[in-house]
Amino acid sequence: MKNETLTKKAVCVMSGGMDSTLSAYMMQKEGYEIIAVHFNYDQRTQTKELSCFEKIAQNLDVKAKYVLDLDFFKQLGASALTDQNINVPTDGVQEGVPVTYVPFRNGIFLSMAAAIAEKENASVISIGVVEEDSSGYPDCREEYIRAMQKAINLGTKDDTKIEITMPLVHLKKAEIVQTALDLQVPLELTWSCYKNEDKACGVCDSCRLRLNGFKIAGVKDPIPYE
């Protein structure tokens, strides 16, 4: 009989997007049992992202998953992703932190993932942050994630030792696309658009980064665009 204490478990924060999906597949390849975690936070594409997450979790054959509702983000506002009164930029020209940044989102996600990891006796939290080729979000920086790891281990039981892994943090989008293809990740199940849930807009910052990554990698993006 398999000793459950010897099972390596990884809590994977999964949005339904390409980056977090690849991160989860990389953890599975390393032999971890995946605990899939998804957050609904009243973002514009919440329904689509949840649908993608469910399909990806099924493809990964995860044994445990959590879908958590964080409705306070809508009350907080301050982001084009959660406030319908703020337009999602489509001109590709932004300076500083963009209006699509959701205040301290990854910090909140990681805190909740830490609680799940402690409950599930998981040794790893995986998050698909990308520092160099991201949209300029401060909570995607490696230094910040390392600081969160230290804080989490200080704030949990003495025998809880959690590593936050960021397998994509130093990759370019084209490298992410190629790695996903190499691992046969079902990219057709992922979604990146900030605006639409039917056909991706192709012009928001997230779509631009994704499309450029596929272009440089020399392959066609399998999701539909306007």
Q: What this model shows, in words?
A:
By secondary structure, the protein is of the alpha/beta class. It has a single domain (about 5-215), classed as 3-Layer(aba) Sandwich (Rossmann fold), CATH 3.40.50.620. It is built from 7 helices and 5 strands; from the N terminus they run βαβαβααβαβαα. It has a 5-stranded parallel beta sheet, with helices on both faces. Strand 4, helix 5 (about 140-155) and strand 5 form a beta-alpha-beta unit. The termini are far apart.
Rounded Rg: 17 Å
Q: Report the end-to-end length measured between terminal Cα atoms.
A: 52 Å
The tally of domains stands at 1
Kindly state the number of beta strands. Answer: 5
Taken from the alpha-carbon principal axes, the silhouette is: globular
CATH superfamily: HUPs
User: Order of strands in the sheet with the most strands?
Assistant: 3-2-1-4-5
Please describe the biggest sheet, giving its number of strands, its sense, and whether it closes into a barrel.
Answer: 5 strands, parallel
The poorly predicted ranges are none
Q: State the secondary-structure class.
A: alpha/beta
Assign the CATH class: Alpha Beta
Number of helices: 7
**Helix content bin:** 25-40%
Query: Order of SSEs, N→C?
Result: EHEHEHHEHEHH
pLDDT averaged over residues: 95
CATH architecture: 3-Layer(aba) Sandwich
